[in-house]
Amino acid sequence: MKRMNSTDAVAMVARGFARAAGCVVLGLLAACGGQPATPAAPEAITVRTIKAEPVSVKRIRTYPGVTTSVRPVAISARVAGFLDTQHVADGAAVKAGELLYTIDQKPFQASLAQAEASLAQAEAQVPSAQAALDLAARDVERNRPLAASGAISKQTFDQLETKRAQSDAQLASARAAVDAARAQAETARLNLSYCRIEAPMDGLLGKSAAYEGQMVGPGYTVQLNQLVQLDPMYAEFSPSATEWPLISGHMAKGPVSATVVYGGVESISAGGTITFSSNTVNASTSTITLRASFPNAEGAFRPGTFASVKVDLGEIPGVVMVPTAALVARETDFFVWRVKSDGTAENVRVELSVREDDRVGVVQGVVAGDRIVVAGGQKLTEGAKVVEQQQAGAAPGAPNGQPTK
Predict the structure, then answer these.
(1) Under a CB-based contact definition with an 8 Å cutoff, are residues 258 and 311 in contact?
(2) Residues 154, 174: one domain?
(3) Residue 180 lies in a domain
(4) Which residue in 288, 198, 307, 181 sits closest to 243, CA to CA?
(5) Which candidate, 265, 349, 300, 343, places its Cα nearest to that of 49?
(6) Are 79 and 191 in contact (CB under 8 A)?
(7) What pTM did the predictor assign?
(8) How many helices (H) and strands (E) does the chain have?
(9) How many domains does the chain have?
(10) For site-directed labelling of 147, which of 132, 240, 297, 369 has its Cα 20 to 30 A away?
(11) 364: phi then psi, degrees, rounded to nearest 5
(12) Which has the closest alpha carbon to 167: 188, 190, 144, 137?
């Protein structure tokens, strides 16, 4: 018997493995009817879709704003004196003409009495000065024929005329003294009236800056309080200058509505109109200041409140709207899954426009009539087969699970 070397042994083992593998393959082919197995078709993914349709939507722009009073007025002391009485409490709602503060009036009453006495004294000088002028004038007229005939010297007649001129000047001085005394009396009367500080309008007082017994007025505490008007009120906001052409175009057609809203869960709102626009653009922020006026009869809004101002800029017709739930964010872009006519899904990049509640307008990527996936898109891949999810009571094949008509 011939001895095999190591190379022959290895070759024999390899041929054995090959015959064994061939037998296994033949056995499998026989078991499958003699044909190779084909891969199973991928399972369709169940989704829910909607049909994109064009609708008219309101163009509502929302801006951050601050409420301000139409008339914030500083309540000031115009004369110096001791604050005698504060007649209303801090934070009180007051009416126009209501007495707020009084300053000690006694020094001003004394000044008025003195000024009125000086006026009476000056007025008493006028009749005597008038009488002296009348006498001097008669002397001149009586002696005029005598001076003409030479019965009296010209020098004597000149002295009479000089006396008349002096009397006329004295009367003018007396009358001027009356005018000065009258002005002083009026000033004293005004200063006395300034001791009573009244509300110039209806409004809400703030916290007093001075208290009874304190020296107030020029040289001391001048501003005693602040009174703000609450109805109506302003809300100031600053849209971008690039939006001004759109806003101004609507303002040119008529009043532009604006709704002011503030608060949390129980927010409050008031409707008004835009009544003012700045005549310049802020160069550092490229914004323009606008002001909305709105009623505030209940006083719910206070000046200095941060609020939202929603401006109604009309309707946009034919906007293709899709639910925000259909959007897929990827870096800085948005995508939606669209179902093609063959029942497969494709990922489409979209450009968005206006937003209304839970819907958003699409200006590129989706057209009216497209079927858009709104649920079940997490499992989708490009070209995946989809099947519409059926809701209870829906007819088979009805889009979005709605009964067919």
Answers:
(1) yes
(2) yes
(3) yes
(4) 288
(5) 343
(6) yes
(7) 0.65
(8) 4, 21
(9) 4
(10) 132
(11) -155, 135
(12) 137
d(CA 70, CA 234): 6
Q: Is residue 39 part of a domain?
A: no
- Specify whether the CB–CB gap between 359 and 50 falls below 8 A: no
The CATH number of whichever domain residue 117 belongs to comes to 1.10.287.470
CATH of the domain at 325: 2.40.420.20
Token pair of 383 as six digits: 């070209």
Are 211 and 83 members of one domain? yes
Q: Indicate the burial class of 314 (C-beta count within 10 angstroms; 0-12, 13-18, 19 or more).
A: middle
- CA dist., res. 274 & res. 255, Å (int): 7
Assigned token pair, 190? 């005004």
Which residue from 355, 293, 366 is spatially nearest to 324, judged by alpha carbons?
355
Tell me: do 111 and 190 sit in the same domain: yes
pLDDT tens digits along 270-307 = 999 999 999 999 999 999 999 999 999 988 999 999 99
Rounded Cα distance between 380 and 346, Å, is 9
Other C-beta atoms closer than 10 Å to the C-beta of 83 total 24
Residues 367 and 352: their CA atoms lie apart, in Å, by: 12
User: Quick check: helix, strand or coil at residue 89?
Assistant: coil
Q: DSSP label at 387?
A: E
Q: Tens of pLDDT along 138-181?
A: 999 999 999 899 888 999 999 999 999 999 999 999 999 999 99
